[in-house]
Amino acid sequence: GDFCQLPPVPNKRDGKTVLARFAFEAETWETCVGPPVVLKKVFRQKDQGFVNMLNEMRFGEMSESTINIFRGLNRNVNYEDNVQPTELFPHREQVDGANRTRLSQLPGESQTYVAFDTTGTDLNGNKVNDVQRDRLLDRLVVPKILTLKVSIAYS
After folding, report:
1. Residue ranges making up the domain that contains 138
2. What is the pTM (predicted TM-score) of this model?
3. pLDDT tens sequence across 137-146
């Protein structure tokens, strides 16, 4: 993969943020993977000027000229089918904020559901205690409280 694309996402352990590291920062990287391979030829883009701009962005060293060209591409787009493009966010908090905004724009009443989590047993039949349960639940992507609306779009 391209380590310039997205940095690793930090994790939480016992309620504290654990800094994430790139795979190549592991002590065993050289032993397991070997030296890095740097690919230099771009196949998907033919415009070398555009390739140079993308490389500036990848390495976080954009020239004023490149910044101005990218800013010049900013425009309002009207989607005739009313289907909005997918948005990508690096953090769950940003995803949650975007979802709350979209939900508030939908007509209808909100219905909120609250998870009720209890302890049980693991795959070996051992009882899971509250601390283990909370640690497992902290790693889930699903929220403890979920608010939904019934909205029917007609086209």
Report:
1. 80-154
2. 0.50
3. 887 878 889 9
